[in-house]
Specification:
Number of strands: 0
Helix content: over 70%
Number of domains: 1
Largest sheet: none
Order of helices and strands: HHHHHHHHHHHHH
Mean pLDDT: 83
Strand content: under 5%
Low-confidence stretches: 1-6, 16-20
Distance between the termini: 42 Å
Radius of gyration: 20 Å
Length: 280
């Protein structure tokens, strides 16, 4: 059984090791770092260009979602959860980052086909810049949320809070890996972008954002446990809502998920990249 399960990963590991140019790929990505930072700056500034509220939309958008969810679900799902708005916010912000990053990444190669066809650069930069732009929005939102939690008197574990950047990095790596896979597949099958939008919508409801793990029935509880985003969200809940240190096994699971996602993503993206020009 162990041999059967491990075979696909051993194959991928062999592919990765045998692909000697993969190391050169990372070096190439680094050499294009100025382009990466330029794309992030352009996307971040251009997102709310000519907008009255400007960067405040980074707060207004998730805040409006929280208000709606609190009003609708506080009496149904949150009646047994103290300070429900905090519990909801702590899980909703990283989820919004994940879903928006995955949706944007999926379409970014097709959306930037003019760049892909006219100039050479590592195409992965497009996915990485999309994720990084959303990460900046998440950091702004989370910073304001921490201030709001402290002001509300709920309290927060300052030492456990130091683990948050580590979890954010793991989530960034995880969604980048998925973004590499989906963006490459979307070049060949344009239905992928529509499917990912539906997938992330459904995925949200089977992730313990609006409810707690112990409040689910056996079926939903099983889905929660096989849901990779559950472990990321639960770590954020542990640190920022419960004020405790996250379970070590959750951190290990998130690390493994992130490594596998980016590992598979890099290999698939590189293999499918050769057909981008003729498909765009």
């Amino acid at each position: 059984m162990i041999a059967f399960i491990s075979t696909p990963y051993l194959y991928l590991a062999r592919e990765f090791i045998m692909e000697t140019s993969m190391i050169d790929r990372f070096k190439e990505l680094y050499s294009f770092r100025h382009m990466f930072f330029g794309l992030v700056k352009k996307d971040f500034k251009g997102r709310y260009r000519n907008s009255v509220f400007g960067y405040l939309w980074h707060l207004i958008t998730p805040l409006s979602m929280i208000i709606v969810f609190v009003i609708v679900f506080s009496a149904i799902l949150g009646k047994n959860i103290e300070s429900y708005w905090i519990y909801l916010s702590v899980g909703l912000f990283p989820w919004t980052f994940f879903s928006s990053s995955l949706n944007l990444s999926t379409d970014c190669i097709v959306r930037n086909s003019h760049m892909v066809n006219k100039m050479y650069f590592p195409r992965e930069i497009l996915i990485m810049s999309s994720v990084t732009t959303n990460l900046i929005s998440l950091i702004i939102s989370y910073s304001m949320l921490i201030v709001a939690i402290v002001i509300s008197g709920h309290g927060i574990n300052a030492i456990a809070l130091l683990i948050v950047p580590i979890v954010l990095i793991l989530e960034v790596v995880f969604v980048t890996g998925l973004g590499l896979i989906m963006s490459a597949l979307n070049v060949y099958y344009r239905d992928i972008s529509h499917g990912v939008g539906i997938l992330t919508f459904l995925w949200m409801w089977v992730t313990p954002i609006m409810y707690t793990m112990d409040s689910t029935d056996s079926l939903l509880g099983f889905v929660n446990h096989i849901n990779p985003m559950t472990y990321f969200i639960e770590i954020f809940h542990d640190i920022m809502y419960f004020g405790t240190y996250p379970e070590m096994q959750y951190l290990i699971i998130c690390t493994v998920l992130a490594v596998i996602a980016v590992f598979v993503g890099m290999i698939m993206f590189k293999k499918l990249e050769h057909g981008f020009s003729e498909r765009l």
